[in-house]
Amino acid sequence: MSREQQIPLSEAPPLYVEKIDGPVSALEVPQNSSFQSPLPPPSQKFRDIPVQAYCPSCGQTGLTQLDYVNGLLVWSAVLLLILFGFIFGCCLIPFCVKPMKDRKHLCKNCGTTIGYYRKLESVFGY
């Protein structure tokens, strides 16, 4: 726009100014409102038993359902048994031992995977 085509200040729309009494915060929540955050807790610790967890898929909070999956501990035990000569089927025993398996935590409502409990991490603490 050139200087000749600029809109004069007298024709510009008026400014909107609202007077606010007192300090205002963007994070302010009224005292009498029932505000619930839809976000889950920042870190969820999963264990080898069902835990109370938030499902981001369906938005429900409740106890999880466990599914047992073969993890690194099971496969390490199988490898060790093969190395020690347990070849004729005995090396497959760790696949049948539930306490050695990892746990997958599922939502009871929709079946979405919420998290994992890795057995090997709990054994060595890393």
UniProtKB/TrEMBL annotation:
Q: Which GO terms describe its molecular function?
A: zinc ion binding
Name the principal localization, coarsely classed.
membrane
Topological relation to the membrane, as annotated: Peripheral membrane protein
Please tell me whether the keyword Metal-binding is annotated for this protein.
Answer: yes
Q: Which InterPro entries match?
A: LITAF, LITAF_fam
Any Pfam family matching the protein: zf-LITAF-like
Give the superkingdom in one word.
Eukaryota
- Domain LITAF, which positions? 35-119
The UniProt keywords, alphabetically, are: Membrane, Metal-binding, Transmembrane, Transmembrane helix, Zinc
Q: Where in the cell is it found?
A: Endosome membrane; Late endosome membrane; Lysosome membrane
Q: What residues form the membrane-spanning segments? A: 72-97
This entry carries the following GO cellular component terms, namely:
cytoplasmic side of late endosome membrane; cytoplasmic side of lysosomal membrane; nucleus
Query: Which family is annotated?
Result: Belongs to the CDIP1/LITAF family.
- What protein is this chain from? LITAF domain-containing protein
Q: Which organism is it from?
A: Didymodactylos carnosus
